[in-house]
Specification:
Length: 613
């Protein structure tokens, strides 16, 4: 491939753009080279936590920018893209691939300020107007953020304040990030570049051998800087040129053979090592009678589910995965490979899958599962208005134990472990014998980790999400444990995670707060659903409630592993004394956030009281 005059022109043009944009980013990204962040995930191209790390790193710059300019995000796309490219240059100088930034941070318009991001806020002045000159963040996120307790308090405060903001405008998607930037850039006296702040508030992971490295840091970073700047310039030119050429070539090729190649490619990668069957689209269309609306049995963040009957008479649920972006193919293949090999009686296993692509409707992917005749736990706990029999105590007990066993298998029984990320009553399905099966595991991982995705997800499952995950996307096995704790409490009490119906004050709306209050006042029995209050042995039922509270503790380190939680439920090990909750929940500023949260589950109620806040 020779260089035509035209490509040369491209290069020069890009050089011009580059020299203009490089100088216009107001953020000094030198911390990227001086902070001892843990870059090991970014050395492994399949490790998805690299993107989390980069988001945290870039967030440090945004918090810094907020401190200097009072602006959340950038005023226009010019400065946004120049900052992204500066950031990229810094990373390249540390020999990370150029593509990392666009893969992880995406389109530069993501970082151009937009009032709809969070309740009309664009500047710190707007923030103060909405939240007040001091908020919980000011009391919780200042000072040295080392230590679990300090950091836990700040995390909790961020969670509450962002929910309070989101309650002012339901369309908000980035209030979490605003709270994080504000805490790190404005509130914290050490600022976002301080490792203690970066670790706690921005969720950055530091290199464990950092203490020794930092000695050589200044020399090393100067070296890297000199070489990096030269190298990066050449690199920018070369790669941009190549990308343009590649894209053209790729597009042409796409039109010809993309569709068949895509399907055969995916098939070839999925099939050889999995237990799942390969379905053709025709089979699935026949099974569902052509995917009509009337056969639709569910709809969620990841897709639409239809009921169908295969030609051998098996009743199945066919889920069409909604394409969030086209990057998901590789991951889809990986996930299907992993999931289809997992067989556990408390997990909804995959029967098969289908991938098609055609000119008219593009790529589509389907997953086929066994149909679960008794619906979801949610249907039985909440949708069942007196006219049907409620779940009995033995049924509830078994469902909770089933879920614990399914999760314990995902976390401890297979390698690599799978974190579900979306445990909630609607994802727990019940078979004909009312045995519980956890659905949608593994697939949660399928979608990209980008910002917008994270926030839509957070918005969708308020209440079930562990605070640290909601805020920073920090995912550990303990995030699942948190959601499991919520499910236990819901199952024991028959109350939704966010419930306004019987609330006498704000601190009883969130199920964890309510259960905690009841238990601390000595009324554990008050937590039990009325229908089962007299059904079971009091001691066992109390144990379940206590494990639920412990699992849903706001501080990650105090939650048990799912394996220990299961042992506690079964009475094999003792439950540790319940740790104190870190915050008094009667504080006035919690009210609106709780009301907002509640209104997502109780759509008609509560919203009027929000507008007056
Ligand atoms: C973008 O914002 C920067 C910083 O405020 C400003 O200097 C620049 O003139 C703006 N560019 C455009 C095209 O508006
Ligand atoms: C970025 O996203 C916006 C809106 O989502 C779109 O209009 C724009 O073309 C995208 N830019 C690039 C470079 O992909
Ligand atoms: C939220 O979005 C919906 C639909 O996009 C729009 O109709 C509504 O006006 C928006 N609400 C606010 C407060 O911006
Ligand atoms: C910016 O950060 C410094 C130190 O971290 C702090 O003293 C200052 O008040 C901050 N500026 C604003 C506008 O908050
Ligand atoms: C740091 O260096 C000291 C000696 O200078 C050594 O004893 C220690 O093990 C090193 N720590 C790490 C984490 O490498």
């Amino acid at each position: 491939m020779g260089l035509s005059p035209r490509s040369l022109f491209f290069f020069l043009f890009i050089l011009f753009i580059d020299s203009v944009t490089c100088s216009s980013c107001p953020i000094d990204f030198s911390y990227v080279q001086t902070l001892p962040w843990d870059s090991s995930p970014c050395q492994d191209p399949t490790d998805k936590s690299c993107c989390q790390t980069l988001l945290s790193l870039f967030g440090i710059g945004l918090a810094q920018y907020l401190n200097q300019t009072s602006m959340f995000y950038f005023p226009n796309e010019t400065s946004s893209s120049s900052c992204l490219s500066d950031f990229q240059t810094k990373l390249q100088s540390m020999s990370f691939p150029r593509s990392l930034v666009s893969e992880c941070l995406g389109n530069s318009t993501e970082f151009v300020v937009n009032p709809s991001f969070c309740a009309g806020i664009a500047t710190t002045q707007d923030w103060i107007k909405k939240v007040g000159p001091t908020s919980l963040l000011d009391s919780s996120c200042n000072g040295d953020m080392t230590g679990l307790t300090r950091c836990g308090l700040c995390v909790e405060a961020g969670f509450r304040v962002s929910a309070q903001l989101a309650s002012l405008d339901k369309n908000s998607t980035k209030c979490f990030y605003y709270a994080v930037f504000y805490a790190a850039g404005i509130v914290n006296e050490f600022g976002p570049e301080d490792p203690r702040t970066a670790v706690c508030i921005l969720g950055l992971t530091l290199d464990s051998s950092a203490t020794n490295k930092s000695k050589n840091l200044s020399k090393e970073s100067l070296y890297k800087w000199v070489f990096g700047s030269l190298g990066a310039l050449v690199g920018v030119l070369m790669t941009t040129g190549l990308i343009i050429v590649y894209k053209k070539w790729h597009k042409k090729r796409q039109q010809k053979e993309l569709h068949e190649e895509y399907v055969t490619g995916v098939k070839a990668r999925v099939l050889p090592n999995t237990g799942a069957k390969w379905f053709s689209l025709a089979e699935l269309e026949q099974a569902t009678s052509g995917f009509p609306q009337r056969n639709m049995i569910g709809q969620g963040g990841y897709g639409v589910v239809f009921k169908g009957i295969l030609s051998d008479g098996t009743v199945v649920a066919v889920k069409q995965i909604l394409d969030i972006d086209s990057k998901g193919d590789e991951e889809f293949v990986n996930e299907v490979g992993i999931i289809s090999n997992i067989r556990h009686r408390n997990l909804l296993s995959l029967r098969g899958c289908c991938v098609t692509s055609d000119q008219l409707r593009g790529k589509r992917r389907y997953l086929v599962y066994d149909f679960m005749p008794n619906g979801s736990l949610d249907d039985h706990l909440f949708k069942n208005e007196a006219n049907e029999k409620r779940l009995s105590w033995p049924q509830r007990k078994n469902i909770i134990l089933d879920v614990a066993k399914g999760l314990a298998y995902l976390h401890h029984g297979i390698k690599p472990a799978i974190y579900h990320r979306d445990i909630k009553a609607t994802n727990i399905l019940l078979d004909s014998e009312m045995k519980a099966r956890v659905a949608d595991f593994g697939l949660a991982k399928q979608s990209t980790e980008g910002q917008s995705h994270l926030t839509t997800r957070v918005a969708g499952t308020y209440g079930y999400l562990a605070p640290e995950y909601a805020l920073y996307g920090q995912l550990t096995e303990k995030s699942d444990v948190y959601s499991f704790g919520i499910v236990i409490l819901e199952t024991m009490s028959g109350r939704k995670v966010l419930d306004t119906t019987n609330a006498t004050n704000a601190s009883t709306i969130l199920i964890t707060d309510w259960a905690w209050t009841m238990v601390k006042s000595g009324d554990v029995k008050g937590v039990f659903d009325e229908g089962i209050r007299e059904e079971g042995p009091r001691g066992v039922m109390e144990r379940f409630v206590l494990v639920g509270i412990l699992c849903a503790h706001v501080m990650v380190a105090l939650r048990p592993t799912i394996a220990d939680a299961l042992k506690m439920l079964e009475g094999d090990i003792d439950i540790p004394r319940l740790p104190d909750r870190p915050l008094p929940l009667s504080h006035e500023s919690f009210r609106s956030s709780l009301l907002f949260s509640a209104s997502t589950s109780e759509r008609s109620k509560g919203s009027s009281s929000i507008s007056s806040m």
